[in-house]
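User: My collaborator sent over this chain with a note saying "see what the structure looks like." That's all I know about it. Can you take a look?
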Amino acid sequence: MRFKIILFIILFACKTQSQTSQFNEIDSLINSSIKHKNFPGAQLYIKFKDSVIINKSYGYHTYDSIVNVNNKHVYDLASLTKVLASTFSIMKLYDENKLNLEDKVSYYFPELKNSNKKHTTIFESLSHTSGWIPYISHQNFIKKRNGNLKTSIVRKKNHKRFSIKMSENLFLKNTYSKKLFKRIRKSKLNKTGVYDYSGLFFFYVPRLVYNITGFNFESYFKKTFLSDKKSSITFNPTKEFNKEMIVPSEYDSIFRKSLVHGYVHDEAASFMGGVSGNAGLFGNAESIGTLLNILEPESTTFKRTTVQKFTSYAFKNSPVRRGLGFDKPYSSDQYGEYPNKNLSKNSFGHTGFTGTMFWVDPDKKLTIVFLTNRVYPTRSNQSFYKNNVRSKLIDILLRK
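Assistant: Without extra context I'll predict from the sequence alone. Here is the result:
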């Protein structure tokens, strides 16, 4: 008996020492990334099995090292919105038999019935095989030839006809979103059935949710998924947080001519007043990690078959790398193993342009949330990708 106790103590000590070494490696990786200006600061949340093993912040809001990042501060989540708000909402409507994945998008939006998108299904839209083009730079349509913004569309002061707030001192004409949807409707349609990541369908998701439920998108999202009142996840964070709690993203030298701080980074989402299906959510890593618990078997938010349907590959034995709304692991000659070769094929997640990521591996009982503002001060800095920070982080976590 005494020998067994001693053996247990030795094994426990070895395990603790190994874990400490692992945590030190993670700290070293992130601090080195900050030093090399991959990003000025970060938050990391790691859950293994039923325990949160890391919930930590690093660095500063900006490179001037004035405001330390802490766990309560919120980041612009960018395209994580496509999953956490849009896909989750569609999953719930599917779960409740209020929506069919083979429904045509034009069934809910009659204006598409006379367009080249009349046959597009929700399944195709979520798997990014709809043929819709990836993106439209709507901000380029509101500029004059000299680069100044058209005052018939944008004003620098709030007005009853110009009240959509895109930044501290920039207000969009209230009716302008109609032109945004008209551009989407008239945009080119590429070959269907082929993977081509497109964010355009997600602009329709808030209206889709409203058409089915009668609730506006933000209200539906919060009442359905954010039962935890402590959650930091929100649209338009300046309504709930002081600015010092919000991590800035990029200095926009082209469109808003200012530091984007407290307002959505994605230009097109800013045209929607910061509440869009493609981008707009802000939050901290802990709140995202907590929200992801609704995908676990113990949760009653979704049926297990619904979670399985959406987080599995949309097409088996196919080069299409997506689930429904979710990203999946894949390998290619050009990019290698994405996001990391050690993740199981049952894992799923998403990344965001601002430098955000969540990934869940149910086989390995692992949840990762990693938030940065890698676009500060400019999106042209590609060192975050060149240094492959996300994959290196996963390497450390899953090293055998």
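A starting point for your reply to your collaborator: The domain at 20-398 is CATH 3.40.710.10 (Beta-lactamase).
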